[in-house]
Amino acid sequence: MKAARIVKPKESLQVQDLETPKPKGSQVLVKVPASGVCHSDIHLWDGGYEGPGGQFLKTTDRGVKYPVTPGHEVAGSIEAISEESQSLFAKGDKVLVYPWVGEGTCPACRIGEENLCDKPRSLGIYVDGGYTDHVLVPSYRYLVKIGNEDDEGDNLDINEAATLSCSALTHSNHIQYKEC
Ligand SMILES: [Zn+2]
Ligand SMILES: [Zn+2]
Q1: Peptide bond into 33 cis (omega under 30)
Q2: Mean per-residue pLDDT for 41-48?
């Protein structure tokens, strides 16, 4: 698969050939036709952002490691899914990806507020995200079905849906980054 990655802050993104991941356990491989571009992606590319007191807060001080594939506003279709996840989703389902993934054990995660995780594993920030043709989602729990393969019923447009997991959740997003 190809991914446009930030190798170093403030340098042009590099299109790299990476091995397409194979989902294991509850992981799901999503084929990505659309990924939004968010102002947070610019901060990631800048290597940080200005904090409340005017000081520059470095992304690497907050656990970001480069190179990373940006893109946390992702919608697509399920390309591969393990047997254990097939009761809820099927290959071809159109999905919106919830990117604010936590590590699962901190106090915030334990009460279901993974977006406030102490050690976040957010897609497109701490782990590879959507500026690619395929993204590995750590669990089907982070998927919202928005349509089926045959485009029947009330399918949301994938390009329009991509931004919802961020722009429609602006409040929690901003708490996570502690920007505003
Ligand atoms: Zn965003
Ligand atoms: Zn956590």
Answers
A1: no
A2: 96
- Give distance in angstroms: CA of 149 to centre of ligand 2: 34
33 and 159 Cβ atoms separated by less than 8 Å: yes
Q: Pick the ligand that lies closest to the CA of residue 130.
A: 1
> What is the Å distance from ligand 1's center to 163 Cα?
7
Task: Give me the residues near ligand 2 (ion), CB cutoff below 5 Å.
Answer: 102-103, 106, 109, 117
CATH number at residue 82: 3.90.180.10
Count of the separate structural domains present in the chain: 1
Phi-psi region at 108: left, alpha or beta (left = phi > 0; alpha = psi -120 to 50): alpha
Is residue 176 predicted with pLDDT exceeding 50?
no
What was the pLDDT predicted at 171?
46
